[in-house]
Amino acid sequence: MELRIQHLSKQYSNGVQALKDINLTIPSGMFGLLGPNGAGKSTLMRTLATLQDADAGTATLDNIKISEQKDQIRRLLGYLPQDFGLYPKVSAYDLLDHFALLKGLLNRKQRKEAVDALLHQTNLYSVKNKHLGGFSGGMRQRFGIAQALLGDPKLIIVDEPTAGLDPEERVRFHNLLADIGTEKIVILSTHIVEDVADLCNNMAVIDKGSVILSGQPLRLIEQIQGKIWKRFIEKIELAAYQQKYPLISSRLTSGRTLIHVYADERPDNSFNPAQGNLEDVYFSAMAGLLPSAMPIQRAA
Ligand code: ADP
User: Fold this and answer.
1) Using CA positions, which residue lies closest to atom 21 of ligand 1?
2) For residue 39, which atom of ligand 1 is closest to its CA?
3) pTM score
4) pLDDT by 10-residue block (mean), the chain, 300 residues
5) 40 C-alpha to center of ligand 1: Å?
6) Is residue 35 within 8 Å of residue 193, measured between CB atoms?
7) Where are the alpha helices (DSSP H) in the chain?
Protein backbone atom coordinates (compact mmCIF):
# COMPACT_ATOMS: atom_id res chain seq x y z
CA MET A 1 0.00 0.00 0.00
CA GLU A 2 1.12 3.51 -0.63
CA LEU A 3 -0.33 6.92 0.11
CA ARG A 4 0.92 9.62 -2.22
CA ILE A 5 0.40 13.25 -1.32
CA GLN A 6 1.24 15.67 -4.11
CA HIS A 7 1.26 19.45 -4.02
CA LEU A 8 -1.42 19.61 -1.33
CA SER A 9 -2.27 23.18 -0.26
CA LYS A 10 -4.96 24.68 1.93
CA GLN A 11 -5.80 28.24 2.89
CA TYR A 12 -8.56 28.89 5.42
CA SER A 13 -11.04 31.69 4.85
CA ASN A 14 -9.31 33.78 7.56
CA GLY A 15 -6.20 33.84 5.33
CA VAL A 16 -4.15 31.25 7.26
CA GLN A 17 -2.18 29.12 4.82
CA ALA A 18 -2.32 25.84 6.77
CA LEU A 19 -0.75 23.61 4.08
CA LYS A 20 1.81 24.75 1.52
CA ASP A 21 2.58 22.38 -1.34
CA ILE A 22 2.87 19.21 0.76
CA ASN A 23 4.55 16.28 -1.01
CA LEU A 24 4.95 12.96 0.81
CA THR A 25 4.98 9.30 -0.07
CA ILE A 26 3.85 7.14 2.81
CA PRO A 27 4.41 3.37 2.62
CA SER A 28 2.86 0.67 4.82
CA GLY A 29 3.90 0.70 8.46
CA MET A 30 3.91 3.42 11.07
CA PHE A 31 4.49 6.92 9.78
CA GLY A 32 5.12 9.76 12.22
CA LEU A 33 4.01 13.27 11.31
CA LEU A 34 5.80 15.51 13.74
CA GLY A 35 5.41 19.24 14.21
CA PRO A 36 4.62 21.95 16.76
CA ASN A 37 1.11 23.15 17.52
CA GLY A 38 -0.30 25.07 14.58
CA ALA A 39 2.01 23.38 12.04
CA GLY A 40 -0.89 22.06 9.96
CA LYS A 41 -0.96 18.43 11.12
CA SER A 42 -4.68 18.28 11.90
CA THR A 43 -5.53 20.03 8.65
CA LEU A 44 -3.57 17.38 6.77
CA MET A 45 -5.11 14.55 8.83
CA ARG A 46 -8.66 15.83 8.30
CA THR A 47 -7.99 16.17 4.57
CA LEU A 48 -6.73 12.59 4.35
CA ALA A 49 -9.72 11.46 6.42
CA THR A 50 -12.06 13.05 3.78
CA LEU A 51 -13.48 15.52 6.32
CA GLN A 52 -12.31 18.61 4.47
CA ASP A 53 -10.98 19.45 1.03
CA ALA A 54 -7.66 20.94 0.03
CA ASP A 55 -7.57 23.90 -2.38
CA ALA A 56 -4.99 22.28 -4.62
CA GLY A 57 -3.08 19.04 -4.99
CA THR A 58 -4.01 15.39 -4.62
CA ALA A 59 -3.76 12.53 -2.18
CA THR A 60 -4.05 9.00 -3.53
CA LEU A 61 -4.25 5.71 -1.66
CA ASP A 62 -2.99 3.17 -4.17
CA ASN A 63 -5.33 4.08 -7.06
CA ILE A 64 -8.06 5.80 -5.07
CA LYS A 65 -8.20 9.59 -5.14
CA ILE A 66 -9.12 10.76 -1.67
CA SER A 67 -10.93 13.96 -2.66
CA GLU A 68 -12.97 12.28 -5.40
CA GLN A 69 -13.70 8.79 -4.10
CA LYS A 70 -14.62 9.60 -0.53
CA ASP A 71 -16.94 6.66 0.04
CA GLN A 72 -14.29 4.21 -1.10
CA ILE A 73 -11.69 5.79 1.16
CA ARG A 74 -14.06 5.82 4.12
CA ARG A 75 -14.49 2.06 3.81
CA LEU A 76 -10.72 1.64 4.14
CA LEU A 77 -10.21 4.29 6.80
CA GLY A 78 -9.96 4.24 10.58
CA TYR A 79 -9.68 7.67 12.20
CA LEU A 80 -9.05 8.82 15.73
CA PRO A 81 -9.52 12.60 15.70
CA GLN A 82 -7.75 14.94 18.08
CA ASP A 83 -10.96 15.91 19.84
CA PHE A 84 -12.62 12.53 20.07
CA GLY A 85 -15.88 13.06 21.95
CA LEU A 86 -17.60 10.26 23.85
CA TYR A 87 -21.06 9.83 25.22
CA PRO A 88 -20.36 9.79 28.97
CA LYS A 89 -23.42 7.82 30.01
CA VAL A 90 -23.02 4.99 27.52
CA SER A 91 -20.96 1.87 28.21
CA ALA A 92 -17.86 1.07 26.17
CA TYR A 93 -19.53 -2.06 24.81
CA ASP A 94 -22.71 -0.30 23.73
CA LEU A 95 -20.94 2.58 22.00
CA LEU A 96 -18.51 0.31 20.16
CA ASP A 97 -21.45 -1.86 19.12
CA HIS A 98 -23.20 1.26 17.84
CA PHE A 99 -20.12 2.37 15.86
CA ALA A 100 -19.86 -1.16 14.46
CA LEU A 101 -23.43 -0.93 13.21
CA LEU A 102 -22.65 2.40 11.55
CA LYS A 103 -19.61 0.77 9.91
CA GLY A 104 -22.00 -1.72 8.32
CA LEU A 105 -21.48 -4.73 10.57
CA LEU A 106 -25.13 -5.74 10.45
CA ASN A 107 -24.88 -9.39 11.44
CA ARG A 108 -25.41 -9.49 15.21
CA LYS A 109 -23.13 -12.47 15.88
CA GLN A 110 -20.29 -11.16 13.70
CA ARG A 111 -20.66 -7.73 15.27
CA LYS A 112 -20.39 -9.15 18.79
CA GLU A 113 -17.28 -11.09 17.79
CA ALA A 114 -15.67 -7.99 16.29
CA VAL A 115 -16.55 -5.78 19.28
CA ASP A 116 -15.35 -8.37 21.81
CA ALA A 117 -12.10 -8.86 19.89
CA LEU A 118 -11.38 -5.13 19.80
CA LEU A 119 -12.20 -4.71 23.49
CA HIS A 120 -9.70 -7.49 24.24
CA GLN A 121 -7.10 -6.00 21.91
CA THR A 122 -7.34 -2.61 23.57
CA ASN A 123 -7.40 -4.12 27.06
CA LEU A 124 -10.85 -2.75 27.82
CA TYR A 125 -12.79 -6.00 28.00
CA SER A 126 -12.89 -6.05 31.79
CA VAL A 127 -14.43 -2.55 31.85
CA LYS A 128 -16.71 -2.98 28.84
CA ASN A 129 -19.87 -2.34 30.87
CA LYS A 130 -18.56 0.79 32.55
CA HIS A 131 -19.79 4.19 31.46
CA LEU A 132 -17.29 6.05 29.27
CA GLY A 133 -17.63 9.12 31.50
CA GLY A 134 -15.66 7.26 34.19
CA PHE A 135 -12.79 6.34 31.86
CA SER A 136 -9.28 7.76 32.35
CA GLY A 137 -7.58 9.62 29.49
CA GLY A 138 -5.63 6.51 28.54
CA MET A 139 -8.73 4.32 28.56
CA ARG A 140 -10.55 6.84 26.41
CA GLN A 141 -7.74 6.87 23.86
CA ARG A 142 -7.66 3.09 23.80
CA PHE A 143 -11.39 3.14 23.18
CA GLY A 144 -10.70 5.62 20.37
CA ILE A 145 -8.32 3.12 18.78
CA ALA A 146 -10.88 0.34 19.17
CA GLN A 147 -13.47 2.34 17.18
CA ALA A 148 -10.83 3.32 14.61
CA LEU A 149 -9.99 -0.35 14.03
CA LEU A 150 -13.60 -1.40 13.39
CA GLY A 151 -14.09 -2.92 9.95
CA ASP A 152 -10.39 -3.80 9.51
CA PRO A 153 -9.24 -0.49 7.95
CA LYS A 154 -6.15 -0.31 5.72
CA LEU A 155 -5.39 3.36 6.42
CA ILE A 156 -5.42 4.39 10.07
CA ILE A 157 -4.99 8.00 11.12
CA VAL A 158 -4.46 8.98 14.74
CA ASP A 159 -4.21 12.68 15.52
CA GLU A 160 -2.28 13.68 18.67
CA PRO A 161 -3.34 10.53 20.54
CA THR A 162 -0.88 10.71 23.44
CA ALA A 163 -1.27 14.37 24.43
CA GLY A 164 -2.21 14.46 28.10
CA LEU A 165 -1.46 10.80 28.83
CA ASP A 166 0.73 9.93 31.79
CA PRO A 167 3.95 7.99 31.01
CA GLU A 168 2.48 4.60 31.85
CA GLU A 169 -0.60 5.17 29.71
CA ARG A 170 1.58 6.43 26.88
CA VAL A 171 3.66 3.23 26.89
CA ARG A 172 0.47 1.18 26.90
CA PHE A 173 -0.89 3.17 24.01
CA HIS A 174 2.41 2.79 22.10
CA ASN A 175 2.28 -0.98 22.54
CA LEU A 176 -1.25 -1.01 21.22
CA LEU A 177 -0.28 0.98 18.11
CA ALA A 178 2.82 -1.15 17.55
CA ASP A 179 0.63 -4.26 17.37
CA ILE A 180 -1.68 -2.94 14.66
CA GLY A 181 0.36 -4.54 11.92
CA THR A 182 2.91 -3.61 9.30
CA GLU A 183 0.76 -4.23 6.23
CA LYS A 184 -1.48 -1.25 7.02
CA ILE A 185 -0.59 2.42 6.80
CA VAL A 186 -0.76 4.02 10.24
CA ILE A 187 -0.21 7.79 10.38
CA LEU A 188 0.54 9.13 13.81
CA SER A 189 0.35 12.89 14.09
CA THR A 190 2.07 14.26 17.17
CA HIS A 191 4.13 17.08 18.65
CA ILE A 192 5.93 14.57 20.89
CA VAL A 193 9.25 13.38 19.46
CA GLU A 194 9.29 10.29 21.70
CA ASP A 195 6.10 8.97 20.08
CA VAL A 196 7.84 8.90 16.71
CA ALA A 197 11.17 7.66 18.06
CA ASP A 198 9.48 4.72 19.78
CA LEU A 199 7.15 3.66 17.00
CA CYS A 200 7.74 4.91 13.49
CA ASN A 201 9.87 3.54 10.67
CA ASN A 202 9.21 6.61 8.53
CA MET A 203 8.53 10.20 9.45
CA ALA A 204 8.18 13.78 8.32
CA VAL A 205 8.50 17.07 10.14
CA ILE A 206 6.00 19.75 9.24
CA ASP A 207 6.28 23.40 10.27
CA LYS A 208 4.14 26.36 9.21
CA GLY A 209 2.38 24.22 6.63
CA SER A 210 5.52 22.91 4.92
CA VAL A 211 7.37 19.61 5.11
CA ILE A 212 10.85 20.56 6.30
CA LEU A 213 12.27 17.05 6.69
CA SER A 214 11.31 13.49 5.86
CA GLY A 215 12.97 10.12 6.03
CA GLN A 216 13.64 7.17 8.27
CA PRO A 217 14.29 8.14 11.91
CA LEU A 218 17.30 5.83 12.22
CA ARG A 219 18.94 7.21 9.08
CA LEU A 220 18.22 10.80 10.06
CA ILE A 221 19.81 10.14 13.44
CA GLU A 222 22.86 8.63 11.70
CA GLN A 223 23.22 11.72 9.57
CA ILE A 224 23.62 14.08 12.52
CA GLN A 225 26.17 11.95 14.38
CA GLY A 226 29.34 13.90 15.12
CA LYS A 227 27.49 17.20 14.78
CA ILE A 228 25.78 17.50 18.15
CA TRP A 229 27.76 19.11 20.97
CA LYS A 230 26.79 19.53 24.58
CA ARG A 231 27.81 21.43 27.67
CA PHE A 232 26.37 22.62 30.93
CA ILE A 233 25.90 26.34 31.43
CA GLU A 234 24.39 28.62 34.03
CA LYS A 235 20.80 29.48 33.32
CA ILE A 236 21.58 33.19 33.06
CA GLU A 237 24.11 32.48 30.28
CA LEU A 238 21.47 30.97 28.02
CA ALA A 239 20.67 34.10 26.00
CA ALA A 240 24.36 34.75 25.35
CA TYR A 241 24.90 31.17 24.17
CA GLN A 242 21.83 31.41 21.97
CA GLN A 243 23.36 34.44 20.28
CA LYS A 244 26.79 32.92 19.83
CA TYR A 245 26.07 29.30 18.86
CA PRO A 246 23.58 27.34 16.72
CA LEU A 247 21.73 26.19 19.79
CA ILE A 248 19.10 23.53 19.21
CA SER A 249 17.92 22.75 22.73
CA SER A 250 18.36 23.56 26.37
CA ARG A 251 17.02 21.59 29.25
CA LEU A 252 17.28 21.51 32.96
CA THR A 253 19.07 18.35 34.11
CA SER A 254 19.67 17.82 37.82
CA GLY A 255 19.18 21.52 38.41
CA ARG A 256 21.71 22.54 35.75
CA THR A 257 21.13 23.73 32.20
CA LEU A 258 22.34 21.35 29.50
CA ILE A 259 22.56 22.80 26.00
CA HIS A 260 22.90 21.05 22.65
CA VAL A 261 24.48 22.80 19.68
CA TYR A 262 24.48 21.67 16.02
CA ALA A 263 27.83 22.25 14.29
CA ASP A 264 30.16 20.40 11.92
CA GLU A 265 33.11 21.08 14.23
CA ARG A 266 33.42 21.27 18.01
CA PRO A 267 32.51 24.90 18.80
CA ASP A 268 35.25 25.14 21.46
CA ASN A 269 36.93 22.99 24.11
CA SER A 270 34.17 23.57 26.63
CA PHE A 271 31.82 21.46 24.47
CA ASN A 272 31.74 17.66 24.44
CA PRO A 273 30.37 15.40 21.72
CA ALA A 274 26.80 14.25 22.35
CA GLN A 275 25.10 11.14 21.07
CA GLY A 276 22.52 12.64 18.68
CA ASN A 277 18.95 11.39 18.99
CA LEU A 278 15.68 12.07 17.20
CA GLU A 279 15.02 15.09 19.38
CA ASP A 280 18.28 16.61 18.11
CA VAL A 281 17.19 15.85 14.53
CA TYR A 282 13.84 17.51 15.16
CA PHE A 283 15.21 20.63 16.83
CA SER A 284 17.97 21.00 14.22
CA ALA A 285 15.34 20.83 11.47
CA MET A 286 13.10 23.30 13.28
CA ALA A 287 16.05 25.68 13.67
CA GLY A 288 16.73 25.44 9.92
CA LEU A 289 20.20 24.03 10.60
CA LEU A 290 20.14 20.82 8.60
CA PRO A 291 21.95 21.03 5.25
CA SER A 292 19.62 21.29 2.29
CA ALA A 293 20.86 17.92 0.98
CA MET A 294 19.37 16.21 3.97
CA PRO A 295 15.69 17.17 3.99
CA ILE A 296 13.07 15.53 1.82
CA GLN A 297 14.50 12.11 1.31
CA ARG A 298 11.92 9.79 -0.10
CA ALA A 299 10.31 8.03 2.80
CA ALA A 300 10.65 4.40 1.69
P1 ADP B 1 -1.77 21.42 14.16
O2 ADP B 1 -2.68 20.24 14.07
O3 ADP B 1 -0.38 21.10 13.66
O4 ADP B 1 -1.76 22.05 15.51
P5 ADP B 1 -3.75 22.80 12.53
O6 ADP B 1 -3.91 22.08 11.24
O7 ADP B 1 -4.79 22.58 13.58
O8 ADP B 1 -2.28 22.52 13.12
O9 ADP B 1 -3.67 24.36 12.25
C10 ADP B 1 -2.83 24.92 11.26
C11 ADP B 1 -3.11 26.41 11.17
O12 ADP B 1 -4.41 26.60 10.61
C13 ADP B 1 -3.12 27.13 12.52
O14 ADP B 1 -2.61 28.42 12.31
C15 ADP B 1 -4.58 27.17 12.87
O16 ADP B 1 -4.87 28.29 13.70
C17 ADP B 1 -5.25 27.32 11.53
N18 ADP B 1 -6.59 26.69 11.46
C19 ADP B 1 -6.89 25.42 11.75
N20 ADP B 1 -8.20 25.16 11.54
C21 ADP B 1 -8.74 26.33 11.10
C22 ADP B 1 -10.06 26.74 10.70
N23 ADP B 1 -11.07 25.90 10.71
N24 ADP B 1 -10.23 28.03 10.32
C25 ADP B 1 -9.19 28.89 10.30
N26 ADP B 1 -7.93 28.59 10.66
C27 ADP B 1 -7.70 27.32 11.06
Assistant:
1) 12
2) 3
3) 0.92
4) 97 97 96 96 97 97 95 94 87 96 93 96 95 93 94 94 88 89 92 93 96 94 96 95 95 92 95 96 93 48
5) 6
6) no
7) 41-48, 70-76, 92-102, 108-121, 137-148, 167-178, 193-199, 217-224, 238-244, 278-286
